[in-house]
TrEMBL record:
<dbReference type="InterPro" id="IPR003439">
    <property type="entry name" value="ABC_transporter-like_ATP-bd"/>
</dbReference>
<protein>
    <submittedName>
        <fullName>ABC transporter ATP-binding protein</fullName>
    </submittedName>
</protein>
<dbReference type="InterPro" id="IPR017871">
    <property type="entry name" value="ABC_transporter-like_CS"/>
</dbReference>
<keyword id="KW-0067">ATP-binding</keyword>
<dbReference type="InterPro" id="IPR003593">
    <property type="entry name" value="AAA+_ATPase"/>
</dbReference>
<dbReference type="InterPro" id="IPR051782">
    <property type="entry name" value="ABC_Transporter_VariousFunc"/>
</dbReference>
<dbReference type="InterPro" id="IPR027417">
    <property type="entry name" value="P-loop_NTPase"/>
</dbReference>
<dbReference type="Pfam" id="PF00005">
    <property type="entry name" value="ABC_tran"/>
</dbReference>
<keyword id="KW-0813">Transport</keyword>
<dbReference type="GO" id="GO:0005524">
    <property type="term" value="F:ATP binding"/>
</dbReference>
<keyword id="KW-0547">Nucleotide-binding</keyword>
<dbReference type="GO" id="GO:0016887">
    <property type="term" value="F:ATP hydrolysis activity"/>
</dbReference>
<feature type="domain" description="ABC transporter">
    <location>
        <begin position="5"/>
        <end position="230"/>
    </location>
</feature>
Amino acid sequence: MTEVLTVDHLQKRFGQFQALKDISLTIHAGEVFGFIGPNGAGKSTTIRTLLGILRPTAGHATIFGLDAWRDAVKIHRRLAYVPGDVNLWPNLTGGEVIDFLLRLNGQQHSARTDALIQQFELDPAKKARTYSKGNRQKVALIAAFSSDAELYIFDEPTSGLDPLMEEVFQQQVLALKQAGKSVLLSSHILSEVERMCDRIAIIRQGTIIEVGSLSEMRQLSRSTVHVTTQQPLAAIADWPTVHQFTASTPTQAVFAVDAEAMGQVMATLSQLGIVALTTTPPTLEDLFLRYYNSEAGHDDESLR
């Protein structure tokens, strides 16, 4: 697969503070790549380094085969970027800002721009100084989605948007994916990443601690089982692959089970006579919490 973006052991230091310790990842053509971690983990610093705004202390990054620092101007002609906090020219209207941003990238206002303005419910005639944070985000998103770029970089792009507008954003990203575009989405909204991304990277304190597809990572987590049986469930309570076993009655319990042991557990439950059963696969949030706590040395039983 063609590599659109490659980061190799990237580091960034601000004085004595090591903001990025070891960042390595690759984004392929046509891939939506999620970059997740809480505020302060290093997501925005990584993106600013990729955009050539910050010069790396060590390591390097390439976009379209070009050096992210030396060839930043060439790279910017081929990508669209939306930060998490958009500042606009206060005396221009929203429509004028959108057109100006498009012209900066050699693009023009089109029918797609008008459609996006309607979908995001933006009043383009108002001055930018009157806009809320959410409306400022809409202006940048409309300009980005109107652009015919090869790579779209979104850094916490839905900050300030209401749930309906978040849905519009997700629809537009999925449309980019269908069109074969590449997307780097930095977010701490796990449901957003879970719905759209092909692969994700989890960052903690300036270090990438895991990269992979959601299905690959789900194999490392556990499903939750709610079950009622005809015979007592005590036989499985002490299995090493069963965790957080909580019984409300001898024949009714909730517990977590390792993915590789699910077949064995189901076979045993069947022998005990299943009356009611529901299983819930692990969510990205489950994975996120588990990775973070295990890496921090707090992999207690509540998160296993």
